[in-house]
């Protein structure tokens, strides 16, 4: 057992993309690698926390020292999250699909037609749900990725989703974003705001040090 500021705390971290299936062989997803979430999970473990990493379909290696559970769709993740709702700290780095196909066909869609329409419906916003059901003392940390108006949108999400912190990362900043090993994150809280640049590993431990260190 590691002694640190998070010893005895239950931490749940989510990482990676979701997949929303159209038919048995096709899905809607995004390029999330899970690297940032894995780094957050490992950094929390190094501070003494009892960590569970919930991850989507990723190829990135997860260190054996981290306990994991896997999900495919946003609905799967929502179910897993409800099982871990009692966590002291929730870090939501997963890139959850906002929409899913209304129906999923059991057979592969044939290409003997010029067009195929797929109707999409909203997925549950898991982090908003967690914010609505936040228990006393629980810390909710969200992520925000935007292509424009990053800081304004991130600040709005911090309030709207009832979060304690939001990690804003821009897709347009150099050395940032989906599969990169490096990142720039603007950590925004209700009272302070900081910027971190470096490897995802370094940033993850700096963020947790800033929030929970001493
Ligand atoms: O609103 P937006 O999707 O930009 O917010 C991003 C944050 O919300 C991330 O922490 C992400 O994991 C979470 N999220 C979620 N459920 C969704 C969409 C996003 O938990 N359906």
Automatic annotation (TrEMBL):
Chain spans, region Phosphopantothenate--cysteine ligase: 11-214
MF (Gene Ontology): FMN binding; metal ion binding; phosphopantothenate--cysteine ligase activity; phosphopantothenoylcysteine decarboxylase activity
BP term (GO), one: pantothenate catabolic process
Catalytic activity, EC: 4.1.1.36, 6.3.2.5
Residues given in the record as CTP binding sites: 98, 108, 124-127, 143, 157, 161
GO cellular component: phosphopantothenoylcysteine decarboxylase complex
Pathway where this protein functions: Cofactor biosynthesis; coenzyme A biosynthesis; CoA from (R)-pantothenate: step 2/5; Cofactor biosynthesis; coenzyme A biosynthesis; CoA from (R)-pantothenate: step 3/5
Domain DNA/pantothenate metabolism flavoprotein C-terminal: 6-211
Catalytic activity: (R)-4'-phosphopantothenate + L-cysteine + CTP = N-[(R)-4-phosphopantothenoyl]-L-cysteine + CMP + diphosphate + H(+); N-[(R)-4-phosphopantothenoyl]-L-cysteine + H(+) = (R)-4'-phosphopantetheine + CO2
Cofactor: FMN; Mg(2+)
Cofactor note: Binds 1 FMN per subunit.
Keywords: Decarboxylase, Flavoprotein, FMN, Ligase, Lyase, Magnesium, Metal-binding, Multifunctional enzyme
Functional note: Catalyzes two sequential steps in the biosynthesis of coenzyme A. In the first step cysteine is conjugated to 4'-phosphopantothenate to form 4-phosphopantothenoylcysteine. In the second step the latter compound is decarboxylated to form 4'-phosphopantotheine. Catalyzes two steps in the biosynthesis of coenzyme A. In the first step cysteine is conjugated to 4'-phosphopantothenate to form 4-phosphopantothenoylcysteine, in the latter compound is decarboxylated to form 4'-phosphopantotheine.
Family to which this protein belongs: In the N-terminal section; belongs to the HFCD (homo-oligomeric flavin containing Cys decarboxylase) superfamily.
Name of the molecule in the record: Coenzyme A biosynthesis bifunctional protein CoaBC
Source taxonomy: Bacteria, Pseudomonadati, Balneolota, Balneolia, Balneolales
Range covered out of full length: 185 to 398 of 398
């Amino acid at each position: 057992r590691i002694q640190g500021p998070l010893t005895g705390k239950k931490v749940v971290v989510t990482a990676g993309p979701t997949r929303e299936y159209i038919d048995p062989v096709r899905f809607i997803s995004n390029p999330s690698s899970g690297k940032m979430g894995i780094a957050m999970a490992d950094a929390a473990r190094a501070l003494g926390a009892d960590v569970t990493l919930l991850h989507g379909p990723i190829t990135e290696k997860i260190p054996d020292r981290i306990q994991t559970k896997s999900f495919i769709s946003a609905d799967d993740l929502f179910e897993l999250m409800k099982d871990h709702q009692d966590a002291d700290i929730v870090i939501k780095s997963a890139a959850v699909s906002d929409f899913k196909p209304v129906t999923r066909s059991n057979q592969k869609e044939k290409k003997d037609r010029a067009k195929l329409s797929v109707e999409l419906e909203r997925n549950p916003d898991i982090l908003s749900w967690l914010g609505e059901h936040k228990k006393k003392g629980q810390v909710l940390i969200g992520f925000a990725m935007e292509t424009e108006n990053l800081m304004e949108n991130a600040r709005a999400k911090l309030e709207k989703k009832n979060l304690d912190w939001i990690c804003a990362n821009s897709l347009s900043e150099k050395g940032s974003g989906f599969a990169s090993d490096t990142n720039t994150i603007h950590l925004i809280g209700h009272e302070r705001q900081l910027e971190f640049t470096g490897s995802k590993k370094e940033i993850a431990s700096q963020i947790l040090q800033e929030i929970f260190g001493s």
